[in-house]
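Record type: monomer structure entry
Structure origin: computed from sequence
Chain ID: A
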Amino acid sequence: MAGRNKKEASRLSLGALTAAGMGAVMGLRALFRERVSFAGRTVLLTGSSRGLGLVMARQFLAEGARVILSAREEVELARARDELEGQGGEVLAIACDVSDRVQVEAMVAQVHERFGAVDVLVNNAGGIQVGPLESMTEEDFEEAMNVHFWGPLYTSLAVLPEMKRRGWGRILNISSIGGKVSIPHLVPYSASKFALVGLSDGMRAELAQDGILVTTVCPSLMRTGSPPNAFFKGDHEAEYAWFVLGDSLPGMSMNAERAARKIIEACRRGDAEILVGLPAKLAVLARTLAPGLTATVLAHVNRLMPQDSNTDRYRGRDSETPLTRSWVTRLTRQAAQKNNEDFLH
C-alpha cells in the first residue's frame, strides 16, 4: 500500500511538473508571439466616422492597410472618407447600423466584393448615456446593449467563417474601464460594456484554436472629442460639466493618438487584454484587491454628483454652460474639431 501511494505521489508530481513546463512554454510563446504587419490587410472598423475609430483608421491606413469605415451617420461618414482618401491608400465607407444584423451581413458582403475577406475587425461603435439611475429608462439599457453587445456579436459572427477558413484573424473589442468598474451615472453604459468584456473573453478562449486572436480593450477616458455627441439626463448641464471636465484634464484623460497606438500594438501582438491609461489600471487594481472599499468610495462619489431624475435626454452640445465653453475644456474642443466630432456645429 505504501509503495502504491509513493508511486501515485510520484505520478502526480510528474504531472504537475509537466503541466508547469507546458504552461511556461505557452507563456514564452505568447511573450514572443509574432508582431504582424497590417500592410495589405483588410481592416473593418465600426464607429469609425469620428472619435477613436477615425484616429485608429488613420493609423491603420498609414501602415498600408485597406480600411473600411462604418457608421450610421452618412454625412460624417462621407467627411471621414474624404479625409482618408486625401491621404492615399484604399478606403471604403459603408453606412451601417451594427445593431441590425441584416445591415451587418450586407456590409460584410460588400467588403468581400471589394476587398475579399476581413483580416482585422475592430468593434468600436458606441454611445454614452450619462445621468442618475433614476433618470434612465429601459430603452436606455436596450440601446446600450444593442450597440455595445449585439453589434460586436453580429459583426464577429459575420466575419468569422472566412477567418476560420483561412486560419487567421484579429478581432479588437473596444470596451471601457466602465466594463471593469461600474461608474456612477453611467449604469447602462457600464452594464453593456461589462457584457462586451464577457463576450470578448469567451470568444478569445474558443477562437484561439482557429488562429483567431481576440483582444479586449478597456481604456480610461480618451480625448477624442466625443462629449458633445454623448447623451445626458437628469440635470443635464451639470452632468455634462463633470463629464467634459474629466475628459479634458490631462491627468484624467489620455491623448487619443497615443491611446490608438497602444491599442493597435496590442492587436499586432495578439494580446488577450489591454488596459489603456493609468486611471484604468489603478481602478481595476483597486476593484480586484479591495472590492468593498472601491464600492464605498464610488458610493461617496455618487453622493457628490447631481441628483435629478428628469428623463429628458439632451446631447452634450445642447448642455453647454459658460464653464464648459471656457479654457478648461480647450483640449476636448480641439479634439472634437480634429476628429470629426463637431460636424453639426
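Annotation 1: DSSP finds eleven helices and twelve strands in the chain.
Annotation 2: The chain has one domain: 36-338.
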